[in-house]
Structure formats: structure tokens, C-alpha cells
Amino acid sequence: MVFVFNIGNTHTQLARQKDGELKLLACMPSVELLQAENLDGLVKGQGLSQGELLAASVVPKISKALKDFFGAGISFVSAKSYPQIDFSGYDTRTLGADRLANAAAALELYGAPVLVVDCGTCITCESLDARKRFRGGVIMPGRAMQMRSMNLLAAQLPELSLEAQMPQNLPLNTAQAMQAGVAWGSIGAVRQIISEVKKQPGMQNCRCLVAGGDRHFFYENIEGLEITPELFTLIGVTLAKKG
Question: Is 98 a catalytic residue?
Fold first, then answer.
């Protein structure tokens, strides 16, 4: 039995893989993992001491907290965890563990060439060519980050939540202008990213996947995207090789 963490900047998923079945156990604010009492509650409530622990983390403070708490009982994914992918052409020293896991899950479930667009706190993309070489990708602010940054950095712009639907008309006030700017701009940016990736050698006929918590918005507004399973990144974590 294996327990897997997908630790993002905002939220963390915890799942259990048993007899080939992956089951989501919890989704929590990532900051909660910085408290030893919360980790102790997970151990007792989810039985973490009864299995192997694997984690993909993009938050160094949380990675340290888990190492301090679990010691040698937890392993963290790295490029070396995925020998089935050729990372030799990419500087992997700062490559996020979620991007590694996404690439592995994409190869396992969809084959190559493939492009993954992960829409969460940030929008990232990972690309693999037909020879299973990691070709890199881009990172940009996600919709929620864009909205929050306008409120934080511009005194007169309000704090707003995201709208699930694409605006259909020209904005008639400041709030609508912010919503439309983020929605239209993000859709345009992702379309351009896909276009640029498909210009690269070996990527012309790649499948284009969309993952992450905001994936439904982009799936509904960009033709040609294939939506990934809810536990997509966690599937990639389970594919990691130890050692």
C-alpha cells in the first residue's frame, strides 16, 4: 500500500494506492502540513504508518516539515524517479515535482508526443516528444493569481473571486473589466502556448491535455484539449521509482 501526496502552493491532495486502485483520501490547504499536530492527525486518521509514503511537493517549507516528521519514511519525486523519460536536455535542478509527475502520467496514460497544460495557482505546461524526451514548457500566473495580484498591487482594484463562465459582452464596470481581462487574456495565452509548442520539432501532432483545479474553464473554452482525470498528478506520483 502506498500513500501519495501532491503538495501545491495552495492545496494538497492525499491519496492511497492499494491493489492498483487510487483513492483520494483528503484535500486540504497546504499550509496545514506545517503543523506537526495536523500531520499526526493524518497518520492516525488515514493510517499513514501502514504504507510507503511518496510526495510531489513544490513548497520547500512543507517538504522540510514532512522530512522532519517522517524521516526516512517518506520519499520525494525527482527527475531520477522517472527513468522512462529522457530529461538530459533540460536543467532539472529547479523543475517542479508536479511537472515531473504530470509528464510521467501523460506518458503512461496518453503516450507521446504529448503536451500537458496544468491550470492551477500557476499555469504550467510540460511537453514530451515522440522519443520520450522532456522538451520543457512555460510557467505563467493562473487566473486566481492574476486576479489577486491586481487587488494587491493596485489600490483601487477590488478583491474578486473567479467567474466560472467566459464573459460574453464588453465590460460595463471595473469588476467586469477585471474578470474579462483575466478570462480572455488567459485563454489567449494558453492558445498561444499550444501554438508555439506545436511549432517545435517532433511536437506538431502532439495530444494536448488540460489538468489542474481550473481545467474545466480552459477545456470548455479551447478546442482540441483533452481533459485529464481528477487525480492526474497523483497518478504520476505513483509511477515514481525509488532510489
Answer: yes
